[in-house]
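Note to self: keep these together.
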Amino acid sequence: MTKRFLTMDAPGASADAIQAGVTAAHVIFASHGTTASEVALAMWKRETDDVRGALVPEEQYDASSTPLATTTAREMKIADLWFVAEAAAMTACYGTGAKPETAQLILREAD
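Structure:
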């Protein structure tokens, strides 16, 4: 199993500020009973289902032509947590002021 870790691309931020951002993101994930890896997978599955055309409103669903969604109800619920965690990380890292446009939360694989 591949080991993953959460970090940030945070131009101009100190190592302590980056760590504060990562910690804030972990708090968001933990408060919802999940992890960064689970949320990233949920986002990927939802996007894949969307591209395949499997996420259609119930009133437009056609069993003969609509592929079955693979994203579970839990995954649909947690998929957007990435954006919540990223916002918390940015605030912890940069405060409430402007942040660099390229700043982002990143899930990396360990070497």
